[in-house]
Amino acid sequence: MSGPQIWTDVDDYFTTHLAPDDEALTAATRDSEAAGLPHAAVTAPQGKLLHLLARLHGARTILEIGTLGGYSTIWLARALPADGRLTSLEYSPLHAEVATRNIARAGLDKLVEVRVGAALDSLPALAEENPPPFDLVFIDADKGNNAHYLDWALKLTRPGSLVIVDNVVRDGRVADADSTASDVVGTRAAIELIGAQPRLDGTAIQTVGGKGYDGFALARVLD
Known about the structure:
single chain, 43% helix, 23% strand
């Protein structure tokens, strides 16, 4: 037995036992939906995976490209130490406003800064501030610019940093070399950059779940 319903049922089972929502996460989902934000946040098991990866990596500084309503931001920020920091870049002022409220409700506003504007404008401005290298970068914004975001991730990290690119399967469309859809073209460019860039060592994983058929790429920054 397979298909979207069983994928959702299994996701629900894993969520219940391994990644249950608490008050802050439930409220973040509720308020994001009430504000009309796209139903595009990571699932609870995926959020828990981000949290565990950040903790296993010992991340103290995180860069998130694409905040949406702050659901993934909360999972990531909860992995940080008390003196850690997370910088999240969000294009939409409405999304940033909702996310900021959700993050504050979760008690994480002292760790998290949400910057509003196009990420390809915010990233050069961030680089000019010469921040300490980010230990982990989570890329989950407009897919057409994935390769550009990956380029900036290389500039803002250090050897040993971890880069995660979400939604790289695109319901299987990533395998279509003839596609002209911007999300496919941008995602293929990012995957091929990971494979060709000598400073990156990565892989990609296909997933199914409540959000359908998709996946993510992981890359470690090398010397």
